[in-house]
Write a structure and sequence with these properties.
Blueprint lengths: L1 E2 L12 E14 L2 E7 L4 E7 L5 H9 L5 E10 L7 E12 L13 H6 L1 H4 L3 H23 L3 E2 L5 E2 L11 E4 L2 E5 L4 H11 L1 E9 L12 E10 L3 H22 L1 H6 L5 H4 L7 E3 H10 L12 H9 L5 E4 L12 E2 L2 E5 L1 E6 L4 E8 L4 H10 L8 H8 L5 E7 H9 L20
Parallel strand pairs: 1-2, 4-6, 7-11, 13-14
Antiparallel strand pairs: 2-3, 2-5, 3-4, 5-6, 8-10, 9-10, 11-12, 12-19, 14-17, 15-16, 17-18, 18-19
The structure holds 4-amino-1,4-dioxobutan-2-aminium adenosine-5'-monophosphate and magnesium ion.
Length: 430
Amino acid sequence: MEKSYINTISRFEGQVVRVMGWLSNKRSSGSIRFLLVRDGTGIIQAVVSRADVSTAVFELSDQLGQESSLEVQGLVRADRRAPGGYELVVSDITVFQLVQDYPITPKEHGTTFLMDRRHLWLRSSRQHAILKIRHGLITAARKFFDDRDFVLLDAPIFTPAACEGTTTLFETDYFGERAYLTQSGQLYMEAGAMAFGKVYCFGPTFRAEKSKTRRHLIEFWMIEPEVAYCDLEGDMELAEDFVAFIVEWILHHYQTELKVLERDIEPLEKVIKPFPRISYDEAVDILKQKGGSFEWGNDFGGGDETVLSQTFDRPVIIHRYPASVKAFYMKNDHQNPDLALCMDMLAPEGYGEIIGGGQREDDLGALVEKIKKHNLPMEAFDWYLDLRKYGTVPHAGFGLGIERTLSWICGLSHLRETIPFPRLIYRLKP
Ligand code: 4AD
Ligand code: MG
């Protein structure tokens, strides 16, 4: 007898198959028991009638608690009313484990309760939808760069130096030497761009963010392209194409999951090129017009980003921030050296920053000055300076945070559900 996964059950219409899974819910009516069985690929209703099965099997179906693991044998029958279009007419059940008091019931639970049981919570339909879209987002992101002949180059996790400022570094002992968990693969991608022209890395990055917000994880995943012979304009263009492609991909492949999440897809359908591009100065004007007390020269806070991102109906790119609020590696704008040739992309609907990047300082002398000015240890950057000694060229890149982007696309209110096992300031478990 064939074994089938639920998502491919239509191939077996009219045949008896075996489905292995877990009981997600059940109800009874007279001499019929309706078992909702999930197997990771989908959910199917298995109908147990007293007339069709042995007394032992019928009684067993009454004892099955939520999340009991089982194999159901039954006839595949088309039913227009069924969620996936099919149901199983059960002839036999084999139980792997009878479960009695699964803690996560269909009633409402608090977030702390659920987060403490994240290892079980992953089985719920909502978490399932989010994490399947996460899978799709990563597929799309990699496909985008692969199709454009970028080379995937993995960056190291242990690093000798800070990339994104020293306040969020995770320090660790590396055989008696000081090492840090990576904040970004960028510096290594710059080496990669000089070797391969167009590269990207995709991996976990770490920031000891001491504030508790809905937009910050301690461990998050970033995809970071870097391109040789590219300037800020080219970088913005690439970022715009990239985000438009990801949203289109998810709208095309994940309608069912977006429905489970009750995501209003109208705003996502508007995410088509061109995206508005404004300078930092223009962004400051918007904040002032909207009654904020923002002062030129500061970086935008979470609240400012919310306001800015609600101003436009699609992602907005903000470029040329004051160099003083940005990282050491950024190139200055020759038309106004107080500004950096950088850009952030803010997702709409109040979500805020999903991308940070820009054009890199490619001049050796200027880069040395910047490392000094930021009080960074020159020894840790000797290899990075080599890149400006041996064939330096204009180059640019960016990093897109997978979880921030997913949170926006799924319409979530907090980053904690966008990653299977989130690391938050007060959470290292499970
Ligand atoms: O703006 P950031 O700090 O830029 C960089 O790390 C650059 N070195 C990237 C590059 O140019 N290659 O971070 C990039 C993105 C942010 O826009 C955001 O989406 C995400 O990474 N991010 C976080 N996501 C979740 N939790 C955090 N604590 C994050 N910090 C940054
Ligand atoms: Mg940033």
